[in-house]
Amino acid sequence: MPTPTRRSLTLVARLAALAALFVTTPAARAGTTDVVPAATLTEVTNFGTNPSNLQMYVYVPDTVTDRPAVLVAVHYCTGSGPAMYSGTEYASLADRYGFIVIYPSVTRAGKCFGVASPQSLTRGGGSDPVGIKSMVDWVTGTYDADTSRIYATGISSGAMMTNLLLGVYPDVFKAGAAFAGVPFGCFATTDGSEWNSACANGTITRTPQAWGDLVRSAYPGYTGPRPRMQLWHGTEDDVLRYPNFGEEIKQWTNVLGLGQTPAATDTPQSGWTRTRYGGTGDQAPVEAISLQGVGHSLYSYGVMGPLAIAFFGLDDDGPAPQPPAGPCKVSVTTNAWNTGLTGSVTITNTGSTTVNGWKLGFTLPTGQTITNGWNATYTPASGAVTATNASYNGTIAPNASVSIGYQATHTGNSAAPGAFSLNGTACTAG
């Protein structure tokens, strides 16, 4: 798609921005004007419902895209909105790509976001998520921002809040990136405490369904699309221990109707292991990056921010590029009836070397579950599925093909699967 057009602030808007500077300084915070100074971190007051007295800081670049996207960047414990602004590269990325950044800031002692109370875990519950939602509404109303491109990211306490925002407001946020967090609801307490040692120590484990139910309970009755999630964690995290990473993966794959088997696994940098669920490209439904030997302070300026931006799709105005097709082609046909269907899949080796042993990854549409198959073993039965060769068909010579098939139930969507990859490499659809 074409590069988004940008519009500079008009002379009138610049004059309004200059006026706003004088009413948003510490000496005069009675209110704000409609426009904040461009390319300047600015505090906004009177932005809407704010039950926990959060502060709002916003960064608007000199030029923004038409109907800009909005990124909420949430700080860590002991941090602040200005610290998140200066310690991450999201403002400079906003300068480059034309989106707007909101930096919420906690005013309570400890400077941690509220992620433990029943109020914080419920839509409209009267805690931090409500104030952050008001900030988003202020920006979308003031700048005619694109309400279909609202994203959240955070570090530590901010990562926990990212999980909460995506759970409480799935109709607001398109995707999130959580750096060293815990699953939605893991930190919940009933005694008013803001700290949950069992969760922090990684001793709370649940099934994917149970974790997913916690998210779904935040907004009962919601049946719309759910946001994508990118997760980061260091294996030596001694504050929010590493088992939380696996529990987050369980939660968000379940929320998005995916299985636990990755569609793709790679190593983008030494010591990193990246798994993608439900797709193989830069905008897979769930992406999880494990950092070997890294502790809680894992965020690396200039390295991780751009990868989060790519996951969101904010580095252009269209879908992120998918990996180039590998030396394989996959064709598939389905035949459906009532609540059942059969799928016939043909894998062709279009490369110049023989494939010895293969695993075919693909994503079943929501509501489909494989009940039996032939010429391969299929795990899991739904979501991101991996078909593994049988003992008699593991070799595919150049230009040769293998045919496999399965029978499945469906709940109304009988479409063919997609996002095929052979041994982790994307295939051309035939």
UniProtKB/TrEMBL annotation:
InterPro entries to which the protein is assigned, alphabetical: AB_hydrolase_fold, CBD2, CBM2/CBM3_carb-bd_dom_sf, CBM2_carb-bd_dom_sf, Esterase_phb, Plant_Biomass_Hydrol_Est, TAT_signal
Pfam families found in the cross-reference section: CBM_2, Esterase_PHB
GO terms, biological process: polysaccharide catabolic process
A GO molecular function held by the record: polysaccharide binding
Domain CBM2: 321-430
Annotated keywords: Carbohydrate metabolism, Hydrolase, Polysaccharide degradation, Signal
Keyword RNA-binding part of the UniProt annotation: no
Protein name: PHB depolymerase family esterase
Organism: Streptomyces cupreus
